[in-house]
Amino acid sequence: MRKPLGRGLSGRGGFLVAVPMLAILAIPLIALAGASSPADIAAGARHPLFGPALWLSARSTVAALAIIVLAGTPLAWWMAGPTGRRSRIVEALVDLPIVIPPAVMGIALLQTFGQRGLFGPALSSLGIGVPFTTTAVVVAQVVVAAPFYIQAAATAFRGVDEDLLIVARTLGQSPMGAFFRVAVPLALPGMVAGAALSWARALGEFGATLIFAGNFVGVTQTMPLAIYTALESDTRVAVALALVLAAASALLLVPLRAVPTLLRGQPAARGEASRQSGRP
Amino acid sequence: MAWSVRVSVRAGSFSLDAEVRGDLDPVVLIGPNGSGKTTLLRVISGAYLPLGGRIRVGERVLYDSRDQVWLAPEERRVGYVPQGYGLFPHLTVLENVAFGRAAARVRNHRRNRRAAAAAILAEMECGDLSGRYPATLSGGEKQRVALARALLPAPDMLLLDEPLAAMDAAARRDFRAYLADHLTERKVPAIVVTHDPRDVYALGTPTVYALEGGSVAQSGPPEALSADPATDFVSEFFREDGRAGRRG
């Protein structure tokens, strides 16, 4: 593959200009990694806050991701269809949770499910209270993380050649058959990357969870909230929690980076290569 | 098997009003880019819903705006080979051909379907390609596989959108004869879109339709169009014949 030329900032001078940003991104993580001795980390992992928070984060993000993929895929498919004004409004709605601060989303969720919220009275008459429960944790994660998956999946679906779907139909597939046997396999790399990004966002969710779900050990105290709590008593625990969370998030980079390339069979990978080398 | 298509399509500023008919002999569709050739094929395949009209293949009515008949693509028994062949890149050649659900019109098992796919590939001289992925095939090979896949379910009609466009000269010559043979042998009516007058003669087609700006500008036997072209495009199309003929 040829080196892309024509980029103004290339060569040694360009690298020097790029270093400050790289440093800002990397140094805090290096500092975090170097802050604790293995003994400190072991002590942190034995702390009573650690286990419940890890377990809650694991199951709540898995539940959130499942909801995001199950409910988000049909929406993404619809968004990838013929464009119209309608679809552009929907796209803006989907993007909104990305730009709105999580704390604001937390308040919005309280206004929806809280005691005096939109559905609050109806839900409490059924004996259901959402705020300050594990359900609330999942709801907060779904709301803030779903847009990342939906946008990625919609982009991936738009990349599927319409002719392939028409051919699948003429070969006897129902719309569902064409979707599952042609559109999904071809869009899978993008969907997996989007799901990984979404999962990472759900794992890091803090603001909306704190406001909408609270900070109760074993019920709503996820890893980020446990770090916040631990910081008030024992920095070592906070650092240990932070390291585990950082490692888990970094692991999500693997599906984000590697799996899409692996999943892309020979043909698509070729297309990718030619597209990149074709760049000026 | 006689067939007839009369449809009106409106999509934004684009409009198509065309009437095309034929029987067992392949019909050739010519026309400049954007004249509505691909749209017409997609409407016949059932991918686009037209504004009005009627589509009939043999005894079956696929679409009739007056009687509110509209069959879904999977119910039409119409084979469609788009420009660029439309092979599924994530499936092998054999899986591509075995993809059809209504394959061979027998309610069939996965294994039968694969056997039928292997048989038609062998028949069409592509047996050795079975395990390969479409990206590794040449243009001519892709087109043969796409044709085999479209023919396996024994469609009542075949729609081929520029089947020879992406091939080099030698492959075109081979495939032209191959296509003509298989269409005659299998007795399946076809609409073939092409930009090359030599395809018209090779297919032995009795009728050419020239589509321009969304309507049929001229139709008839190729000799008649060539001798008395109604538009600049038709005249240009058949004039190239002479030049190209000397070359190839």
Structural overview:
- The complex is a heterodimer of chains A (280) and B (248).
- By secondary structure, chain A is mostly helical.
- Residues 265-280 of chain A have low confidence and may be disordered.
- Chain A has 13 helices and no strands.
- Chain A is globular, with a radius of gyration of 22 Å.
- With 248 residues, chain B is α/β, with parallel strands linked by helices.
- In chain B, the strands form 2 sheets. A 6-stranded mixed β-sheet of chain B has the order 7-8-9-3-10-11, with helices on both faces. In chain B, strands 2-1-4-5-6 form a 5-stranded antiparallel β-sheet, covered by helices on one side.
- The longest helix of chain B is centred in the C-terminal third of the chain and has 18 residues, at 169-186.
- At the A-B interface, helix 8, helix 9 and helix 13 of A face strand 7 of B.
Give the SSE layout:
The complex is a heterodimer of chains A (280) and B (248).
Chain A: H1 11-35, H2 38-46, H3 50-79, H4 85-99, H5 102-113, H6 120-125, H7 134-158, H8 162-170, H9 175-203, H10 207-213, H11 223-233, H12 235-263, H13 266-277
Helix pairs in contact in A: 2-12, 3-7, 3-9, 3-11, 4-7, 5-10, 7-9, 7-10, 8-9, 9-12, 11-12
Chain B: E1 3-11, E2 14-22, E3 27-30, H1 37-45, E4 52-57, E5 60-64, E6 69-70, E7 78-81, H2 93-97, H3 110-123, H4 139-151, E8 157-161, H5 169-186, E9 190-193, H6 197-202, E10 207-212, E11 215-220, H7 222-227, H8 232-247
Shape of chain A: globular
Radius of gyration of chain B: 18 Å
Regarding quaternary structure, how should these chains be classified? heterodimer
Query: What proportion of the residues of chain B is helical, as a percent range?
Result: 25-40%
Compute the number of strand runs of chain A. Answer: 0
Low-confidence parts of chain B, pLDDT < 50 over ≥5 residues?
243-248
- The overall strand count of chain B is 11
Main beta sheet of chain B: 6 strands, mixed
Strand line-up in the sheet with most strands of chain B: 7-8-9-3-10-11
Biggest sheet details of chain A: none
Number of alpha- plus pi-helical segments of chain A: 13
Topology of chain A as a string of helices (H) and strands (E): HHHHHHHHHHHHH
Q: Give the N-to-C terminal Cα separation of chain A.
A: 12 Å
**Class by alpha and beta content of chain B:** alpha/beta
The chain pair forming the largest interface, with residue counts per chain, is: A-B, 23 and 32 residues
Can you give the mean pLDDT of chain B?
Answer: 87
Shape of chain B: globular
Overall pLDDT of chain A: 83
Global Rg of chain A: 22 Å
Distance from first to last alpha carbon of chain B: 34 Å
